[in-house]
Design a protein that fits this description.
Radius of gyration: 20 Å
Number of strands: 7
CATH superfamily: SGNH hydrolase
Number of domains: 1
Strand content: 5-15%
CATH class: Alpha Beta
Structural class: alpha/beta
CATH topology: Rossmann fold
Helix content: 25-40%
Number of helices: 8
CATH architecture: 3-Layer(aba) Sandwich
């Protein structure tokens, strides 16, 4: 009787796991990236990553698992075991957004440095292979633009070699691509050099921002408003792809198209 009860309990547990997994394929997005996409604790507000806001543009049954972490490149993401932890969360049918480049170009930091045409390319190929082997769908995302304008007033591409490798792999390996670099440069051009400060971390000491009491001028990391709008660019990119998750992107995304900050990172 005791053995029978144990077998019944094991069967019930297996059924529960199987049933839970049965609802998972296609309803989860995982993110492998750096500080531009990372999620931040409330005490870091208004600093916000686009991956932190992406769920606001998705149907409620879609889950976002954000593995993005500040300061990481393809090299360090692998070396620290973060990629392995992402793979442990990955199930068949899930979508994996892969955005690196900001830290891969840090030649002076060997733990991050991944030359575009060699290590970076090889690391991305491994990511693609691993995701496909696990039954997932890799999506390459070119590195989002920094707030960097040229003499002509147009946003500059700071990572052209790394973005170029992504575009090449997307073509040669038939990997879905969101050209976030191109999309975000258009976004910056539309805002212009002055108004775009509100999209990044530009605050004065007199603004009395608890996270930045001395003020900050950061042209890489986003404010709440900037992160919402970049998440909208990613959502637009996903919606344009012919993927199962594309049908899960909301047609109207008021939480991501706001012109003023909400004062928090929640979805309304």
């Amino acid at each position: 009787m005791r053995i029978a009860r144990k077998i019944a309990a094991m069967a019930a547990a297996l059924f529960a796991v199987t049933s839970a997994h049965a609802t998972r394929p296609g309803d989860t997005i995982l993110i492998a990236s750096d500080s531009t996409a990372a999620s931040y604790a409330p005490d870091r507000y208004p600093q916000t990553g686009w991956g932190q806001m992406l769920a606001c543009g998705l149907q409620p049954d879609v889950r976002v698992i954000n593995h993005a972490m500040g300061g990481r490149s393809t090299r360090s993401f692998l070396a620290e075991g973060r990629w392995d932890r992402l793979l442990a969360d990955l199930m068949p049918g899930d979508t994996v957004l892969i955005q690196f480049g900001h830290n891969d170009q840090a030649r002076g930091k060997p733990e991050r440095w991944a030359p575009a045409q060699t290590d970076y390319r090889n690391n991305l190929m491994r990511f693609i292979w691993d995701v496909r082997t696990a039954g997932g769908i890799p999506v390459l995302v070119t590195p989002v633009a920094r707030r960097n304008f040229g003499p002509d007033g147009k946003a500059i591409a700071d990572y052209p070699a790394w973005s170029g490798v992504m575009r090449d792999l997307a073509t040669t390996l038939h990997v879905p691509l969101i050209d976030l670099e191109a999309r975000s440069r258009v976004w910056l051009d539309r805002a212009g050099p002055e108004a775009s400060k509100a999209l990044y971390l530009h605050y004065r000491a007199q603004d009395e921002i608890a996270a930045f009491p001395k003020g900050i001028e950061d042209n890489t990391h986003f404010s709440e408003l900037g992160a919402r709008q970049v998440a909208n660019l990613v959502a637009e990119g996903l919606r344009a792809l012919d993927l199962p998750v594309s049908r899960k992107i909301l047609a109207e995304r008021p939480d991501l198209t706001r012109a003023t900050p909400l004062g928090s990172t929640r979805c309304r």
